[in-house]
Amino acid sequence: MEGRLDTSTTRKNGDSLFRTVTLLFACSIIAILLVMAGEMVTESLPSLRKFGWGFITGSDWDAVQGSFAALPYLYGSVVSSILAIGLATPLSVGTALFITELAPHKVGAVTASLVELLAAIPSVIYGLWGILVMTPWLQSTVEPFLIEHFGFLPFFRGAPYGVSMLAAVFILMIMIIPIVTSITKEVLLAVPPSQKEAAVALGATRWEMIRMAVLPYGRSGILGAVILGLGRAIGETMAVTMVIGNTPQISLSLLSPAYTMPSVIANEFAETTTKLHASALMEIGLILLVVTLAINFLARLLLWSVTRRWKGGVA
Amino acid sequence: MFSTIRRSILTLALLAAVTMAGQASAGTLINGAGATFPYPLYSKWFSEYAKIDPSVKFNYQSIGSGGGIKQITAGTVDFGASDKFLTDAELKAAPGKLIHIPTVMGAVVVTYNLPGVAKGLKLKSEDVADIFLGRITKWNDKRIADDNPGVVLPNEPIIVVHRSDGSGTTAIFTDYLSSVSPEWKGKVGMGASVKWPVGLGGKGNEGVAGQVKNTRNTIGYVELAYAFENKLPYATLRNKSGKFVEPSIRSTSAAAAGAAKHMPADYRISLVNQPGNDVYPIVGFTWLLVYEHQRDAAKGRKLVEFLKWELHKGQKLAAPLLYAPLPENVVHMVEKTIGTIK
């Protein structure tokens, strides 16, 4: 009798202990974020005070003269990430559909694990591959082709250097495909077979089944995957730094070199000597944080509106 | 269950105590941080020195010159290392008197990719500056062609490649450009990262070298050691005395030998564009930063012993690793300086 009572109190204690521990863990995440944000704001105060809004509207970055403005970096980050996700999404969704719906079981499993293998490659390896294999190929083959056939567009003007916005977009695309594909695959696997069977029973072809039963059900999940991919793309540093050419300029042409926010931080932070320079780099970090938050917020909004609109169709 | 936890905590505590005791008995640990450029040589020095005096252990973090200056100023390390000397303001910010101790010299070479010109392109210093300013834009410019009779130069645009990451290599190179071109000095200036008028940015020596290797008609700059190890073509530059000089260990050391006559007592001197017939013009010291008054006397003594070893025996290890050793006259000066550390 006494023994049983004892166990139950221990169990109760265990429960509350578990609760407290997990609560502490959850709080520590929030605390870390707040401390980081606070630290970044205090560290970037000198630059915030000196340049104000000019920091994100100007484009002069000169460490020797102590004049800093970040628009080219902001432009480079946003454009490269958005183009990369734009290219990666159809590829990833297509791959995931192939794995889950079309491929024979074994082929699908092999493809899936190969895609996941891509995710395990460190980004510096992608960067090295980019600089040794991809950019020479872009320079000798792809870019001359684009200039010759699409040179009338402002996006493909200029000389083929290899290192360029285009190279950054390609490398980012390759790097985010695994994450978007894996999540999309899981989302598609979660589609109830009854739903697919119903579509087939109604006489739908395989494409109609995918279009009417699978994709609407997975829409919000796929969007979530895309957002995670975008988050990864905008924060990617090493591989992009190695292939983008690191020139702070705003050019419509995808063939000209550009610069991103994480790249300039990685490039310059270790060797900053003036306080203002370090502070300006901190402010870039702060902008990166704000942009990431904004993207997440917009994505949630989009997700929310999409799920609401499609609720009827799914249920 | 609780007793298991208690037991494991006890074990952990015991383990921690043992490890800490182990560390304490290992002798003196000297911490340093700073420049990445001399890191391969320094780590060779530390491992060789461990055989001579096993009671001292060095821990060197190659975080970059800027970081080294910050850490020694904050007093979180026992010595700093830097490829650039401190400004008067930076010296004042330090809590004590910081001494610069030059260890070896490095050089920066101008590398290029010109089909048909495998090596030995000749360039005047002013022309190098004007290429990096975007003033000379074609390879067959008369100013380049005049120095290279008999060499077929293409009628192609020059593609400039520079370092994108802040680095001592860039600091030495821009120091050189500032010293040979008033326009560069006024418009761009010198620093670990500058606002480049033209060109593409590659990350690290390997980024610049890779870009130059892959792209025709490019010109860039890398460390001498990196260029030699990777067999990159390099330009022969005309020095202050009007002679074309190839980059080499000897022509690098010659820059400091020539500067010895007007060497300031604190060694804060730029070695670029020094006079002398056999002097290569893009050269710089790399320094260790040490406080004159050591807080920990025992540690200070060990550090001085190491510095003396490095200055004599250690110098012989420099050339095989493609660093230029200090010339004899500078060694004598530095020896006296090390003697002042208390």
Structure description:
The complex is a heterodimer of chains A (315) and B (342). Chain A is an all-alpha fold and 315 residues long. Chain A has one domain (50-306): MetI-like (MetI-like fold). Chain A contains twelve helices and no strands. Chain A has helices at residues 2-43, 45-51, 54-57, 71-102, 105-119, 123-150, 165-189, 193-201, 206-235, 238-243, 261-268, 275-314. In chain A, helix 1 packs across helix 12 (275-314), helix 4 (71-102) packs parallel to helix 7 and helix 5 crosses helix 7 (165-189). Chain A is globular. Chain B is α/β, with parallel strands linked by helices and 342 residues long. Chain B folds into two domains: 2-105 and 286-338, D-Maltodextrin-Binding Protein, domain 2; 107-260, Periplasmic binding protein-like II (D-Maltodextrin-Binding Protein, domain 2), CATH 3.40.190.10. In chain B, 42% of the residues lie in helices and 19% in strands. Chain B has 13 helices and eleven strands. Chain B has helices spanning 2-25, 39-52, 65-74, 88-93, 125-133, 142-147, 168-180, 182-187, 204-214, 224-229, 249-259, 297-312, 328-339, and strands at residues 28-34, 56-61, 79-82, 98-113, 122-124, 159-163, 200-202, 218-223, 236-238, 244-245, 283-291. Chain B has an eight-stranded mixed β-sheet with strand order 2-1-3-11-4-8-6-7. In chain B, helix 12 (297-312) packs antiparallel against helix 13. The radius of gyration of chain B is 23 Å and the shape is elongated. The chains are: A mainly alpha (315), B alpha/beta (342). The A-B interface holds A 60-65, 131-132, 135-136, 139, 159, 161-163, 241-242, 245-247, 257, 259, 263, 266-273 and B 63-67, 69, 84, 90, 157, 159, 164-168, 188-196, 199-203, 207, 210-211, 214-215.
Overall tally of structural domains of chain A? 1
Report strand order across the widest sheet of chain B.
2-1-3-11-4-8-6-7
**What would the average pLDDT of chain A be, to the nearest integer?**
88
CATH-assigned homologous superfamily of the largest domain in chain B: Periplasmic binding protein-like II
Mind telling me the CATH class of the largest domain in chain B? Answer: Alpha Beta
Q: What integer value in Å does the Rg of chain B equal?
A: 23 Å
**Which assembly state applies to the chains in this document?**
heterodimer
Question: At CATH's second level, what is the architecture of the largest domain in chain B?
Answer: 3-Layer(aba) Sandwich
Order of helices and strands of chain B: HEHEHEHEEHHEHHEHEHEEHEHH
Q: Unreliable segments of chain B (pLDDT under 50, ≥5 consecutive)?
A: 20-25
Give the CATH architecture of chain A: Orthogonal Bundle
Compressed to H and E, one letter per element, the order of chain A equals HHHHHHHHHHHH
**First-residue to last-residue Cα separation of chain B:** 57 Å
Number of domains of chain B: 2
